Amino acid sequence: MAGAEQNRISAIKQQVKRSDRYSIFIDGEYTCSLSEGALLETGLRIGQELSKDELHTLKDQAQSDKAYDRTIQLIARRPRSEWEVRQYLKRKSYDEVITQQTIERLLDKGYLDDVSFAQSWIQNRRLLKPRSKRKLRQELLQKRVPEQIITDCLAYDDTDDKEVLRQLIEQKSSQTRYKDRQKLMRYLSGQGFSYGDIKEVLEETEAG
What we know:
- The structure is a single chain.
- About 60% of the residues lie in helices and about 10% in strands.
- It has helices at about 35-40, 50-75, 80-90, 95-110, 115-130, 135-140, 145-155, 160-175, 180-190, 195-205, and strands at about 5-15, 20-25, 30-35, 50.
- It has three domains: about 5-110, Winged helix-like DNA-binding domain superfamily/Winged helix DNA-binding domain (Arc Repressor Mutant, subunit A, Orthogonal Bundle), CATH 1.10.10; about 115-160; about 160-208.
């Protein structure tokens, strides 16, 4: 249409460092990037002309695609709660619309699930850093996992807190810094164990 501003796609180049992403050039200048999947969805081609509105839509799509890509990389390093993902996107200065779109997309694909996250958190903590159920609850609450999910997941965890206490006492008692009984008790208290349980298991250990 005469007089209408047009923007011509002059190049679509595969990125060197990220071969799954493509840089889009409009009139010889870099404009945005898209993942391979997003590029296929848009159907963009070299030589295609975009109106001002179409260019604006493309930039919005690129921003949304980038937010999703970044978040996928984040949760690939370790599972995250929904709240953690929201905080991450907020730190990256994405607006609420893109944040919500990203969250919903991750939920739909099953990449974001607070139940799976809580289960994974409990399992990993049990394997790597023993602690009480109370401490696990506190940690998951800090990740803003809903209380009912935490309660349900901990209900399936049949680990005995006193047995965990025995293991910790045996492990820590051999360390110089915990030879002092009070220091050991403070450490165990910090892991969420009750004073009564700590005292009882310590006395059992010392007697046996």
